[in-house]
């Protein structure tokens, strides 16, 4: 009997492979390619690619391309030809902005145009989902299925990847248990696991809020530095504690703790962004130099959890109108926006000002 992996299993295997520097095979639109996360590429793997022949390219986002002054002929993606004599350091410097100021003259770059960039676009989405820098070394191959089978590599079809991404916000409840907390002794924690096998998310329920009435709710994205370390660079920790305190005082509410660190880019990339902020870039500029969007979070996850818990109406504790729009677009009624203005310090005043000016937060 032969066991066949489901698309969800293939996707999670691909993420793990990419983090270890192992190539994955992408197929679709009549093309196949090897894709390797630029961040995890090794000298040995680069040498293997060169032995295989063909012209390797580096797929990066248009944000990163703008920083490098490279042409992005495919809109949101640029496909940069990797010179035959390019070193591993050159590839990493193109992918990672850490040394932009020290080594600014990496170009000029030659970008591909024509043909489909669908595989490159998919590779960038994949490395993002693995919480790596959004840059992938690509090598077109003639027979993707044979390449995967003969070398034991993970094979992902574009349609399967798109289907799995559409299902990423679907979650299954795992367990819930009572948890007395400082904010309220009547606390309960619910654990939800995405159907695609991704990271778990949590719902902290205070009291027994009625399901037929608007519930005081907050969508809080995980922030290790703010929530745990008491960072003064953001307002996340104070917002977390203030939201729970308000729910405790009311006697009812639900706080969703979504594991989308750093606005969805992961802790390592968040620290990279902080390093760029130390060079003088604001929070949005830092994300763009890394190749990310302003905000990579998926608030459909929060909407899905609230619906699974039986809530249809919310009084949303937020300063971010995008959260309100996303909940509304996913079938929830936001009856009121409850402001949550806490935690401003001398260290985060500019950060908050940037969020208001560039991201539309109501501060």
TrEMBL record:
It is an enzyme of class 3 (hydrolase). It catalyses: GTP + 4 H2O = 2,5-diamino-6-hydroxy-4-(5-phosphoribosylamino)-pyrimidine + formate + 2 phosphate + 3 H(+). Pathway: Cofactor biosynthesis; riboflavin biosynthesis; 5-amino-6-(D-ribitylamino)uracil from GTP: step 1/4. Its cofactor is Zn(2+). Binds 1 zinc ion per subunit. Residues 175-339 form the GTP cyclohydrolase II domain. The active site is at 295 (proton acceptor), 297 (nucleophile). Pfam families: GTP_cyclohydro2 (PF00925). Zn(2+) binds at residues 223, 234, 236. Keywords: GTP-binding, Hydrolase, Metal-binding, Nucleotide-binding, Riboflavin biosynthesis, Zinc. GO terms for molecular function: GTP cyclohydrolase II activity. InterPro entries: GTP_cyclohydro_II, RibA, RibA-like_sf. Belongs to the GTP cyclohydrolase II family. Catalyzes the conversion of GTP to 2,5-diamino-6-ribosylamino-4(3H)-pyrimidinone 5'-phosphate (DARP), formate and pyrophosphate. This is GTP cyclohydrolase-2. It comes from Halodurantibacterium flavum.
């Amino acid at each position: 009997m032969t066991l066949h992996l489901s698309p969800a299993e293939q996707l999670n295997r691909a993420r793990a492979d990419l983090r270890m520097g192992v190539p994955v095979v992408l197929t679709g639109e009549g093309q196949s390619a090897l894709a390797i996360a630029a961040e995890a590429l090794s000298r040995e793997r680069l040498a293997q690619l060169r032995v295989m022949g063909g012209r390797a390219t580096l797929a990066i986002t248009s944000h990163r391309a703008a920083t490098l002054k490279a042409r992005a002929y495919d809109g949101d993606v640029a496909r940069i030809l990797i010179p035959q004599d390019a070193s591993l350091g050159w590839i990493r410097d193109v992918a990672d902005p850490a040394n932009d100021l020290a080594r600014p003259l990496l170009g000029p770059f030659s970008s591909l145009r024509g043909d489909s960039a669908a595989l490159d676009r998919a590779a960038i989405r994949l490395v993002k989902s693995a919480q790596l820098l959004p840059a992938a070394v690509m090598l077109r191959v003639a027979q993707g299925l044979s390449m995967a089978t003969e070398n034991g590599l993970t094979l992902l079809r574009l349609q399967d990847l798109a289907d799995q991404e559409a299902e990423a916000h679907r979650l299954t409840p795992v367990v819930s248990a009572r948890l007395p907390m400082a904010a309220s002794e009547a606390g309960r924690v619910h654990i939800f696991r995405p159907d695609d096998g991704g990271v778990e998310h949590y719902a902290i329920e205070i009291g027994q809020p009625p399901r037929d009435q608007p519930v005081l709710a907050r969508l809080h994205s995980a922030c290790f530095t703010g929530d745990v370390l008491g960072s003064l660079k953001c307002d996340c920790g104070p917002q977390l504690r203030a939201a729970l305190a308000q729910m405790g005082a009311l006697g009812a509410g639900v706080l969703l703790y979504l594991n989308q660190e750093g606005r969805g880019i992961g802790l390592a990339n968040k620290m990279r962004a902080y390093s760029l902020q130390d060079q003088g870039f604001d929070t949005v500029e830092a994300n763009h130099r890394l190749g990310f969007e302003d905000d990579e979070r998926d608030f459909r996850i929060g909407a899905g959890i609230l619906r699974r818990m039986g809530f249809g109406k919310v009084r949303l504790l937020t300063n971010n109108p995008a959260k309100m729009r996303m909940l509304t677009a996913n079938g929830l009624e936001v009856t009121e926006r409850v402001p949550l203005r806490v935690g401003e310090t001398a260290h985060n005043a500019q950060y908050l000002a940037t969020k208001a000016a560039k991201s539309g937060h109501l501060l």
